[in-house]
Amino acid sequence: MREVPENKRILFLRFSIPGSAGVFHPYNRCPPLDIGVMISLVKRRFQAHFIDCRVKKYTEKRVVKETVEIDPFLLVLSFASVDYQAALRYSREIRKRLGRVKIVCMGPHASTLPGTLVYEGSGIDYVLRGEAELDLLKLIEGLDSPEKLRDIDSLAFQGKERSEVNLIENPDELPFPEHETFPPSLYYSIYPLQVYSRLRWGYVLSSRGCPHGCIFCSPYIRNSYGSRVRFRSIDNVIGEIRHLKSLGRNIISFEDDNFTVSERRTLDLCREMKESRLGVSWVAHSGVDELTAEMMAAMKDSGCVLIKLGVESWSEKVLAELGKTRNTGEYIKKTESIFRAGKKLDLPIHALLMINTPGETPDDIAATAGMIIKSNPASIQVHYFTPYPGSRAYDAYGKEAGAVYDRHHYDSKGIRICGSLNARQIRETRKRLYRSLYLSPSFILKHLRRYFLFYLRNPGIFPELLRMLAVR
Fold first, then answer.
1. What is the pLDDT of residues 214-273, one digit of tens each?
2. In the prediction, which pLDDT does 57 show?
3. How many domains does the chain have?
4. Is the pLDDT reported for residue 469 higher than 80?
5. Is residue 82 part of a domain?
6. Are residues 94 and 221 in the same domain?
């Protein structure tokens, strides 16, 4: 065991600054569970500090000041590509002020583009790629031994030729995230729900990996890595929910990339949640392919109050281009049957949609708009197709679309044109899709009947929803 350094302070920093953090998206309020696990892993031997620039509006000057005041021996830095240039400026400034600090980067940008971070003059010492929780411990143990560091497959640094994205095969070997680090006053979801109490959100990642081949899929929009799905045991998941309840959390957001990827596991977990009488409501993300009426009924029966469904489009041509399914006609029929089942069960569905897909035409968008009216989801969210690094789309469209450092799938300022519409038309299309549902008199009346008490109990949510929908 490596001797603990005299300076025992580790700073975990989710870096973001106004202008990029200003891209408003519901996920901006979700906690970084990987950092939470890392804090749990190191807290017995080290003093763990955490700064989250996403939920607190930090200027570059302020985050530098607080970093210097903490004076860590190790700085663990996570950021997205929209913050890349600012993160480099920050790292170089910290290097000047705290010369002996070791700076290690993790997260989506670091995992997909490590070469943009570890080079002479970057200020950054190391990159941990992929699921970095356990490898952080190896890094700490090897700081005084370059040969030990070379044995860490996921670690990139100057002079090391190869690194690879790490996957944790058995998620049960990880401790629960340090949920106390993520107070409900700062971390919450803004979806309206049929829950009529003041919500205190808890977040759980019950599986890792997604087997599907969507061309836009990238670590930038996922919570785990890899196509091989790795489940936590049901007892382990139930144990974490009980722990969150003991902290006063009364609603759970499952952050799995695809909660319903296995029908048997979904049914078993729902049955155990019901039999354990946990007494918490919950929400989860699902793809279309695996979801069945039986699963939806079990989810509803065990406390599910919202399914976030990755629909993307009702155009067969667009679905084929996105790689969503091999049978686009059946996929659309399945989508429609899911919405019918949701209405029958009174289980609201939030439809996740995408525009600006390569080759997309006004007719394709019209097909989606028509089905929004017909299916009448509880809510919708419209994203821009964005060829992020790490996705198949990046190789096909991202490089020709220009620099990757100013794009976000919810920000119209950084649109990379991939379809047949120009930037102004794309922005107007998103506005029309939102208005087609949210300004419908029948939708407004039904929405207020269903969620009026929710807004009374959670008064801060409605203004944030309006902000999200105020598309630029």
1. 988 888 788 889 999 999 999 999 999 999 999 999 999 999 999 999 999 999 999 999
2. 82
3. 2
4. no
5. yes
6. no
Label the pairing between strands 126-128 and 155-156: antiparallel
Identify whether the C-beta of residue 212 lies closer than 8 Å to the C-beta of residue 289: yes
> Which domain range does residue 117 map to?
9-156
Rounded to whole angstroms, the maximal C-alpha distance in the chain is: 67
Measured on CA atoms in the order 411, 412, 413, 415, is the torsion positive or negative? positive
Residue located via tokens 């952080």: 136
- Rounded to the nearest 5°, which phi and psi values hold at 452? -60, -45
In a domain, 300, yes or no: yes
- Which two three-digit tokens encode residue 2? 């490596």
Q: Please choose, from the candidates 197, 208, 261, 211, the residue with its C-alpha nearest in 3D space to the C-alpha of residue 237.
A: 208
Residues 6+ apart with CB under 8 A from 170: 230
Q: In the prediction, which pLDDT does 365 show?
A: 92
The Cα 12–Cα 7 span in angstroms is: 15
Q: Which of 456, 458, 224, 193 is nearest to 307 (CA)?
A: 193
Give the CATH number of the domain where residue 218 resides.
Answer: 3.80.30.20
Angle at 410 between CA 104 and CA 380, to 5 degrees: 125
Rounded Cα distance, 468 and 101, in Å: 38
Which helix (H) or strand (E) segment holds residue 192: the answer is none
252: enclosing H helix or E strand = strand 251-254
Same domain, yes or no, for 298 and 365? yes
Break the chain down into helix, strand, coil percent, rounded to 5: 40, 15, 45
Torsion of CA 240, 132, 408, 201, to 10 degrees: 10
Q: What is the reported pTM?
A: 0.93
Q: DSSP label at 177?
A: P
Domain presence at residue 443: yes
Residue 416 confidence (pLDDT) above 90: no
Separation between Cα atoms, residue 347 and residue 238, nearest integer Å: 22
338-366 average pLDDT score: 94
Question: 353 and 380 in contact (C-beta within 8 Å)?
Answer: yes
Task: With residue 38 as reference, give the H or E element that holds it.
Answer: helix 33-42
CA 227 to chain centre: 16
How buried is residue 264: exposed, middle or buried, by Cβ count under 10 Å (0-12/13-18/19+)?
exposed
CATH number at residue 151: 3.40.50.2300
